[in-house]
From TrEMBL:
Cellular component GO terms held in the UniProt record: cytoskeleton
Subcellular location field: Cytoplasm, Cytoskeleton
Superkingdom of the organism of origin: Eukaryota
Family: Belongs to the filamin family.
Filamin repeats (start-end): 77-132, 132-224, 222-312, 315-407, 405-505, 516-600, 602-695, 697-788, 825-919
Predominant localisation class: cytoplasm
GO biological process: actin cytoskeleton organization
GO molecular function per UniProt: actin filament binding
Protein name: Filamin-A
Organism: Stomoxys calcitrans
Keywords annotated in UniProt: Actin-binding, Cytoplasm, Cytoskeleton, Repeat
Amino acid sequence: MNFSWLSEKPEAPEATWEDFTYYYRPNYYKVTVSERDRPERPQIYYNEALIPENEELSKNDFLPLNFLSSFYIVTHQAEVKMPSGKVDKPIIQDNRDGTVSVKYDPKEEGSHELIVKYNGEPVQGSPFKFHVDSITSGYVTAYGPGLTHGVTGEPCNFTISTKGASAAGLTMAVEGPSKVDINYHDNKDGTVSVQYLPTAPGEYHVAVRFGDKHIKGSPYVAKITGEGRKRNQISVGSCSEVTMPGEITDDDLRALNASIQAPSGLEEPCFLKRMPTGNIGISFTPRETGEHLVSVKRMGKHIPNSPFKVTVMEREVGDAKKVKVSGSGLKEGKTHTENIFSVDTRNAGYGGLSVSIEGPSKAEIQCTDKDDGTLNISYKPTEPGYYIVNLKFADHHVEGSPFTVKVAGEGSNRKREKIQRERDAVPVTEIGSKCKLTFKMPGITSFDLAARVTSPSNVTEDAEIQEVEDGLYSVHFVPKELGVHTVSVRYKDMHIPGSPFQFTVGPLHDFGSHLVKAGGNGLERGRVGVANEFNVWTREAGGGSLAISVEGPSKAEIEFKDRKDGSCDVAYKVTEPGEYRVGLKFNDRHIPDSPFKVYVSPDAGDAHKLEVQQFPEGSIQADAPYQFLVRKNGAKGELDAKIVAPSGTDDDCFIQAIDSDMTSVRFYPRENGIHAIHVKFNGVHIPGSPFRIKVGKDVADPAAVHASGSGLELVKTGHKADFIINTCNAGVGTLSVAIDGPSKVAMDCTEVEEGYKVRYTPLLPGDHYVSVKYNNIHIIGSPFKVSCEGDKMVDEGAQETSTVVVETVHKVAKSGKNTGVVMPAFKSDASQVTSKGMGLKKAFMGKTNTFTICATEAGNNILYVGMYGPKGPCEEFSIKHTGRNNYNVSYMVRDRGQYILIVKWGDEHIPGSPFQIDV
């Protein structure tokens, strides 16, 4: 490619990166100093030079790509990856006005990638993609950032050059997760400027056709990031209910699970519930007309009369097209006010209504049911900008959805700071090598720390903990097998934030943002003017880009320290108290539980003077009062305290002054599990607060919970998928399962022998993320990334979350290592056992009475014999095995009266048992 205004200059020798400084030696000092003092700004703007109409093009010059940059030249690196895979070096020229020009002479046709690095790390947006075609290939080409990347709520621009052809016959289309408005302007110089506004993050396909044919490179794929986007979602209303015949007790109801199969074969879990009439109702969303089959099973077996037939009429099927919406809230909105619209579902059949709103702030959604089939929905955004409103009925968009709403008004004056760092993939760990996991936990005593490692074959061993420097600790262990290990790190018998950790020995089986972990005091609470620290572990997620943002009443200073072992230490410092959001993204996707909501308290004042004494040690019991003392050490002010239970409920503590300097704090835990006791002085946490305490012996241990099954691997739309969550030996706790995916899923959870079985039916293809938490802590592997294939069964919209929560009961494993006695799997038939002898009919006092049992034909099992009389059990009993499952039994009785003799083969009585014997 060439430009005539450049071709008159004498041809410069080809410059290499190494000799670049030679050309700039005269003004090297000036360039370095002036540029070094600029703050680093990672965003890149690229604007390309326009090709003047009818300009003569020849072969040897460069197509300029201008970067508005804030980096000085000696730190810049750029390379171009050609379609053949070869790498070429462009020429970098500092314009000495804060911009750098990258010039490149293409040698191949096709899609190229330009990689721009600063201090060895790719800048945001890199690699930039551009398409090169030959002069003879045709007339029309397109270029500009809108073909490769953009940010939601901000216009994306690109230019189409028609190279002398007319703009007539040019068509454009943009397809992606949101509807987009396309605006274009003919510049009358052979170019057309195009602008489109994406309102949801994701991949957009930009198609440019000339005369019904795609131009070279079309359709282009533009990656739109949702930087700073916040979502809120509510679901209202529900399902059709049909009554099931027959009597079922409440205990039966808990043991049953049900699913409904539509005429098309789509099978979904459905819910059984007690109706006000006392009958059992089946709750489901009708998607099609005709005869449906409802299967109701107990422990995998149909109950009597199951499957039941249910006929769905046309008026019952939820039809999103018949939903009417009205109101100005779907066209425009204002910040800090309730923007209202109404929804009428009276003629639309049965179905759930789901509303999700995504935009620059998390808009609070409220729903009022007016009891006449219509609903008033309001939302209250706090920041101006473009919002996208998804409105679905029975999993299909209502007409006009998704709606793009422009919200005007004053913002909340929240300030946002962000840094981005590249994370290299950690080398593969081998068997026998020394493994290390690092974490920072300031202000603790190391002898209260303990770590254990569980291998894939369920062997648990203690691991060594070393203090690397003040407050920084590392766990060391040597693995003996390949696969995913569980590393539990506990402080005073309680998991530290982030524990239990997943640690893969050998190659990673999966990678991505869902495997990044973060934990530490800085994600739970903060203080003005001090560095609030937390850890981020990216080892399991592979290589990628980690972005950290802090948003709140004041700008944050963010510090980042890479520990070079797949973990890093982050600290932020703010100047104003209030509520902050700490966002952590890996490769443009939020990590689990991000953004974290953190309340930053004012400057400590006198709170640092207070100390706690006589705090209860070890584990305590529920439903009993406990107390500890707080010494003020001369500080003046108000003390307050509350206790937060594992279920999230909080309760006030009773505070009583003992004297002017000493205060007693009494608390009353009501459930088992890890509780947090918040103690504040003048609204600021005292040192060590919140204090964690273990209540009850059988405290739920998320490290002992495991999930497996085909429903966590590859699933298919419209087909029921399931997986088992094994809670054996994990104590009693709250199990919560959430599935985040392209659409809501029908889901249920039922008790099985080894734990709980979750069944769900996905309705849209794409990645689903299954989070399994035990007492609010992710189990190993959670969230699981599940790929779904198949046809689209409902409309696409924003990501939606479905959840189910179960209070678990204590489970003990029947088999497996380190889990107690293992019972063999017996196969037997007690009806084949025979018995004979006088001792089965009559007995004599003080004499030995005998009978024989033959179980040769009855398979293998254990013989149980017992005898009960008028004054209690029989005193003397003897059983002798004579071979081939033949037994001689003798007993002696000392009291007159009637006795009962029981003989069982395994769990079943043999023929004739129980026997009645007179003495």
